[in-house]
Amino acid sequence: MEVVQPVQEPLSLDIINTVKTAQIQNGLRHSDFQRYRRYCARRLRRVRQSIRFLHGRGKFQQKQVTEDLVTNIKFLEIPLFNTERAWAYAMQLKAASEPNPRARFHTVRRLSKAVQWSKTLSQLCAQTTDPKTALEAEAYASQMEANLFLERETYDEALTRFIRARTVYDQLSKVSGPVLAEVYQQRVESMEPNIRYCKYKLSSSDETSELLNLQAASDPLLETKLASVLEEARKKQAETLNEVEFRGKRIPVRNEEIRLSMVKAQDLYGQLQQQESQDTSVDYAETLARFSEIFATYDEISKQVKNQIQELRAGDQQVSSKTEVYLEGLTDLSVYINHLKLERTLERNQLLADNCEKKLSDDDEIELMLTGGKPKHARPEDMVKLYDNLLQTLHDMVQLPGAEDDAEFASFVAAHELRFKATRCFYLSLTYAFIGKWEETAALLERASTAIVVALDAKSDQRSLARLQTLSKRVRGFKWRIHARAVRTNVLLRDSANKPEALVLSKNLSASRTAKAEDDFLIAEFPPAAEPFPCKPLLFDLAWNTIQFPSLESEIKVEKKGFFSRLSMGIWGSGK
């Protein structure tokens, strides 16, 4: 009689979810690859002990996980966490080591080991698990292979495997629950920078905007490659940046470091302009961070120019004509960089003002402040301060050398100054309205209306005109709103002034009066009125130090002692 072996149910393992949970809980939240590698080693030891799959006692005898042995999901965790351990070691070397051939060779070996273990996992899953787990293991192995080819700079092979893994993850997200679907989508998003980088390298383009977009979402394997490629691309662009034109004058740029820094600033600002032109939703904090990078780059350029000027003046005791020309060019370049920095400062401050204005454009918020409530998001005083900063930036731009001779720049400053002053008047009127000063509010609103009319006649760009038209509508609507509230407040004050004073019973105890239903009675005034009362006098003894008191020595009685008293004092030590 033959013994029928029971058919084993296919195993199931959520590979990506298991890996993600282990990574988040053990160091990769903070990019601590060494901690995660040690965790993988400890977990492998625990798994082998739990299934009694150790490498022998005394003499080491390596045991391989085969298809026949996989009766428990724990057996699949052995190749999985061996892969993760090798990958984490490669990332640790990538993040910690200085760029040298030996460290790169070691990184490639660790990634090769990770690929071997991932292929073993994929083969075991194909034979012992359900189709979903097998497909997930195949995508996991493809991603590991892609990482290896990316490190070896075989971009066509890496791109093929990245696309294959992305396709599988995308399909798995459509047939999984909401939790696993989010995990798969995160994997897809994490591979997008790698795919774009491979396409960039295969296209042989010299544009740096694509590299800047990649750098914001790169993984550890891409960071060093992106930095080196960005530097090479900027060097190529810097070779062509021999001069800049500013206010009709050509300014030479001879120093290579200054050229590289200027190219970097142009790339960062170009990315901001590209995002605005494409109308993409950009995070507010990310935009401010990019402005901070631009300002830091301009500060670096100013420092480099200043050092060049100091070196030239310290090197020559008597400045030659050639050195004078060079110094003049560096001075003009310094003015140009300061002008660019102030222009970016103007744009950054306008961005801050626009963000604050969105919070104050809510009618419910304004009505709350008009009734004496506290604002939830922003105050009109904040807008007044922001537009003061904008006006100060314009003033600083005018103070730069050569600004008075630039007619185009003068019209730009005049148009923006009128708009800034009109907007500032409007929000300053809000501050007076919220404390009930209606006359001052009406005067400021009238002044803002006049400034808006003058600003609309000036030469402004389309964005400034749109802002002025929106401001004009708000000022016109707020005028009527303030007028109605002022009339209502005056009526209430007049009614309260004409209202008869309430009868205080504590002051009219002896008065007899027939009470009516409409009478208003008070038991006592509260808080009670202040009454004057005399102060307690303060006495200062000023004569004490100048009085001479008589001597009282004659009044003191002196006790006379006899022979026996002196004798007892000598015997017993006391006169008593």
Features of this protein?
two-stranded antiparallel sheet, two-stranded parallel ribbon, mainly alpha, 18 helices, 576 residues
Q: How would you characterize the overall build of this protein?
A:
The chain has 576 residues and is mainly alpha-helical. The protein is built from 18 helices and four strands. The strands form two sheets. The chain has a two-stranded antiparallel sheet. β1 (243-246) and β2 form a beta hairpin. α10 runs antiparallel to α11 and α15 packs parallel to α17.
Helical content (DSSP H or I, runs of 4+): 55-70%
Structural class: mainly alpha
Give the overall form: extended
Number of helices: 18
The low-confidence runs, each spanning 5 or more residues with pLDDT under 50, are: 1-5, 492-499
Beta-strand fraction estimate: under 5%
Summarize the structure.
The chain contains 18 helices and four strands. The termini are far apart. It is 68% helix and 2% strand.
